[in-house]
Specification:
- The longest helix is centred in the first third of the chain and has 12 residues.
- By secondary structure, the chain is an alpha+beta fold.
- The strands form 3 sheets. Strands 3, 4, 5, 6, 7 and 8 form a 6-stranded mixed beta sheet that branches. It has a two-stranded antiparallel ribbon with strand order 1-2.
- It is a peripheral membrane protein.
Length: 224
């Protein structure tokens, strides 16, 4: 049995201004005086509950204590879901062990996340995995800094990540090293920037054929 890191509590990584769905405020635009901390859940203590302990223990046995300690940065159980935060240098080895030793045969995709204030970990690649054999689901997450946005591709372990990694590269700018053809999949090849990053401008793109310009949402006139 390998213990997870100590419980650290939520990690506040920034402040978000302007949120849709906030109650108790007359500001329904999503912008203005709405302020909310951006917090990520910290490491979880044992027991994790359910099959989560068995997954972590089997993975630790498959990797060995030294490699497990170097690979797994945090074990997080949040809202009854298990996330293994993996150092990017060990991502492929962890994925292969999860596939071969724990029978997580299916990778359901790749989701990119951009936290501009999470210094040194601004870009996150999240892989939801499913074990068809055992009817289990977990998530694997790896991070990279803006200055070095490289994460190893899982194409060699899960070929179904082919198009998903291309989409995450297209929208977030994460470079998946080892991918067989890492090109844009939805935006034009000559498009500048990655549209789902938090630092990408909202609106302000000229309307084709009409010469009009849509201003960013935070610059539009408010009527309240």
């Amino acid at each position: 049995m390998t213990d997870a890191p100590d419980q650290t509590g939520p990690e506040v990584i920034g402040t978000r201004r302007g949120m849709f769905g906030v109650r108790g405020s007359g500001d329904t635009s999503g912008y203005g005086r709405l302020v909310r901390e951006v917090a990520l859940p910290g490491s979880s203590p044992r027991p994790y509950g359910g099959y989560f302990d068995d997954v972590v223990d089997t993975l630790a046995a498959a990797l060995g204590p030294d490699d497990f300690g170097a690979a797994i940065e945090r074990v997080v159980v949040f809202r009854d879901e298990l996330t293994l935060e993996v150092h990017r240098d060990h991502l492929v080895a962890v994925a292969q062990a999860l596939r071969d030793e724990l029978r997580f045969e299916l990778c359901l995709g790749v989701s990119g996340v951009h936290y501009p204030d999470d210094t040194g970990r601004e870009l996150h690649a999240v892989y939801p995995l499913m074990s068809i054999t055992h009817n289990r689901r977990i998530r694997v997450e790896a991070c990279a800094p803006d200055a070095d946005p490289h994460v190893p591709s899982l194409y060699s372990v899960y070929p179904t990540t082919d198009w998903h990694e291309r989409e995450t590269y297209d929208f977030f700018g994460i470079i998946f090293d080892g991918h067989p053809a890492l090109t844009r999949i939805e935006m034009p090849d000559d498009w500048v920037g990655h549209p789902q990053r938090k630092d990408y401008p909202l609106g302000g793109i000229p309307v084709e054929y009409h010469g009009a310009k849509i201003p960013p949402p935070d610059e539009r006139r408010a009527y309240n």
